[in-house]
Amino acid sequence: MDVRILGGLSVRENGVSITPTAAAPRQLLALLAASADQVVPVTVLMEEVWPSGAPRGARVELHSHVLGLRALIAAALTEGPTAAGGRADEDADGRTAETVLAAQSGGYRLDTGGGSHDVWQFERAAGAGYRAMEAGDLSRAALRLGEALALWRGEPYAGVDAGPRLRAETERLEASRLSVLDQWVEAQLGLGRHVEMVPELAVLAARHPVDESLHGQFMVALLRSGRADDALEAYRRLCAGLQRDGGREPSARLRRLHRSVLTVRDAGLPRIPTQSSGLWLQPRVEPAVAGLAGSLV
């Protein structure tokens, strides 16, 4: 089974799509895919589909959706490239609709059969990148973190009517992506790729107008590219965004960086070396599932 979540739901069994178009079974499959190879209790599935309370006959309706998903799975098993030549309801590996979407211990389990899952791939690559950062291997960190980010095709679970469980999972994934992005930028800046990173950081700063980490990295890249005035403008835009977002002020770290930029500009220096002025601090590595708490510069 091939599961894709990071940019719209796509689940393929035996090379054939089993992703339904109807909203409720699509939502059900999304939650099962989020916990693939694990049993998801019926109560959890019902809370996701009916967050305001399950109506009368909800279990019957849920079972009907499961039967619909199994019908799609059965068709995929017989149509795909590894379809068996014997029984019409299994593939060459003996997988049936009932074993792929199995009823177990008061719930259901989506069996990937050892297939691929883009969230698992993302977390493996991110973990390797974080370990490389801890070891000071910035080249490997940039490579593996970049591989993790490349798996994203858009918003997770795009096109799915998300209930409370999927919304929480979406928030977790988005936070993890921003943490990985933060460390990937740190690695790139640590490798001295300031000029190359300026255009991408400009886009990221515009997309995340109150993310202090990204704006701090943008300011450092601009400053080390000899663009102190642009770094000050980036700080002004961040301050304006924070003011609009609840009247907040920049953190002490951003204020210190702002003073450093002013010092460099007033001294008339064309640019600063990568490791000078204390602007580059060793990155603080966060777990892949952490929030947005990457180091600034």
Helix content: 55-70%
Number of helices: 11
Enumerate the spans where pLDDT stays under 50 for 5 or more consecutive residues: 273-297
Q: Tell me what portion of residues adopts beta-strand conformation.
A: 5-15%
- Oligomer type: single chain
Largest sheet: 4 strands, mixed
Question: What this model shows, in words?
Answer:
With 297 residues, the protein is of the alpha+beta class. It is 55% helix and 7% strand. The strands form two sheets. The chain has a four-stranded mixed sheet. The longest helix has 27 residues, at 164-190. It is elongated. The model is unreliable at 273-297 (pLDDT under 50).
Write out key terms for the chains shown.
three-stranded antiparallel β-sheet, disordered C terminus, elongated, 297 residues, 55% helix, 7 strands, alpha+beta
